[in-house]
# Entry
Amino acid sequence: MSSREELLTLAEAEYADLVGKTVLVKYICGWTAGGRETAEVFCDPPVPVRVLDTYNGPLDWDVYDWIDPTYDVEPLQPIAGLDPQRSHWIYGYSRSTSGEESPGSIVAVMTDPA
# Structure
């Protein structure tokens, strides 16, 4: 078990390491065409997105005893069902103070070509 402060520190470090990088995700969230509702789209195979510098940091969701970070992203290919002109986001690795964990959207961090 970890304290809320320890989990926040870990989430901030993970986020700082990912900003600007390309990651493969198994699902992505965003606005549907027309912008009236949001949707979560599952991607098989996973799709590449770039992690953006997220407004107000990555910890938009601090629910109950969970630190459930979200990251703004830029899809690197069209995502069916989502408006390409609106915001997109993914979930980082989530952890609770009771020791539970959830891996979030990311399946791999891509290596930038040298």
